[in-house]
């Protein structure tokens, strides 16, 4: 009934880490190369901006526009995040809570059913078995042949 197919068992064991296989070490050199490239780009741009023929004011205006667009995108992302949060709260209040309440009601019903069966079905059966065991013991005692005493 609860048996797994061989492929499902293989998938489950493939997903679990085993102590015999060590964790793959993470490479640090791509991060170092990226950081070095970023530092070189910053240094080159500062050097270029300090040249006398560079139109620094125009570049400043372009950077300000790009930062404004970035601010708008961040604001839009926050608005989407707030909407998603509202949807999640609605889901929790109107779908998950009723499921939890009905589950709790079902558990209480099952508890009552188990207590009822214990009182009205199991207890009488236990008493009948106890009485039958006493009758059997009495019958066995009466069937015994009296032993002769010397």
Verbal overview:
- By secondary structure, the chain is mostly helical.
- The protein has a domain at 55-138.
- The protein has 3 helices and no strands.
- It has helices spanning 6-15, 29-49, 56-143.
- The longest helix is centred in the middle third of the chain and has 88 residues, at 56-143.
- The mean pLDDT is 83.
Number of helices: 3
What do the pLDDT scores average to? Answer: 83
End-to-end CA span: 65 Å
Question: Taking Cα atoms only, what radius of gyration do you get, to the nearest Å?
Answer: 40 Å
Number of strands: 0
Oligomeric state of the chains in view: single chain
Fraction in beta strands: under 5%
Q: Structural class, from secondary structure content? A: mainly alpha
Order of helices and strands: HHH
Helix content: over 70%
Could you give a short account of the major beta sheet?
A: none
- The outline comes out as elongated
Instruction: Please mark out the parts with pLDDT under 50 across 5 or more consecutive residues, or reply none.
Output: none
Task: Annotate the secondary structure layout.
Elements: H1 6-15, H2 29-49, H3 56-143
Task: Spell out the key features of this protein.
elongated, mainly alpha, 0% strand, 150 residues
In brief:
The protein is mainly alpha-helical and 150 residues long. Helix content is 79%, strand content 0%.
